[in-house]
Specification:
It is a single chain. By secondary structure, this protein is α+β, with helices and mostly antiparallel strands. Helix content is 31%, strand content 28%. It is globular and about 55 Å long. The N and C termini lie far apart (44 Å). The relative contact order is 0.17. The chain binds adenosine-5'-triphosphate.
Length: 305
Amino acid sequence: MIKHLGLRAYGKINLGLDVVRKREDGYHEVRMVMQTVGVYDRIDLDRKKRAGITVETNLYYLPNNENNLAYRAAKLLMDEFGIREGLHIKLAKYIPVAAGMAGGSSDAAAVLFGVNKMFDLGLSREELMERGVKIGADVLLPSAGNRALGGIGEILTPLPPMPQCRVLIAKPGVSVSTKWVYDNLRANELKQEEHPDIDGMAEAIRRRDLAGVASRMGNVLEKVTIPAHPDIGDLKDFMLERGALNALMSGSGPTVFGIFTNPVAAEDAYEALRFGKYKYLAKQVYLTGLYNRRDTNGSSGGVTG
Ligand code: ATP
């Protein structure tokens, strides 16, 4: 019997994010390329004799009840299978919160996998994914693999591993509401050239062409978020000046990431953002790599300010 399980829930970046159109029913048709990075939350699951789910986190402002996606994931499976025992979830959160890195979804996916294993429920990957959809479509990514092409709530197409590079991740100290961003995007008025080339990017990944991926990086949501939060644009410019192949906002923001092939340039930019005179641009900074399963890559980082 498994009494304890330690899990990692990886954060993701959007290398490309397009809103193809807004349907009449208000649904945004999204196409995106997602990639997991080496920034992860650590989740410890412990069985308890006493029934019920308890959550403990290192961030005082995160809910520790059914509003936490990790809690919801555990409850979904434990209710369905009538598990009488209890579960304690210890969540050490490092993925920036409400930042466009799908941290909550990734936690939920990890807990679904963990509970399935811990209580020997025998659910397949697909069956877990079906349950993930009930909590939030983004949960699909970590369960589908590390890199995927697809849209919210749609089938994801796995992609082969990207060539390794350094990824500088910086979250400015502003909050962005995903709903507000989508509500303010006039998706049907976007010009042809404003749509990122998602298929071209997928092809570049298949060719293992990092420069080709970088040159196609694009996120239509920047059009809404950056004018409201100019620090995001400043962060992108900073990373480009410091030698990034390209830099982009992830999801609806405000997190910005830069892709570097020169590790020294990446380290210098990290130092300047974390400790130097550009510290004001970002509240949370990480220098990491892409996370591809079976890869080993170190990640450093932390919270500033
Ligand atoms: P996305 O990229 O999917 O838009 P996000 O990065 O914007 O995700 P998350 O960090 O996943 O957003 O979660 C945002 C909200 O969800 C927060 O307001 C937070 O209170 C709530 N939440 C619930 N559970 C979690 C969790 N385990 N981790 C982070 N946020 C959580």
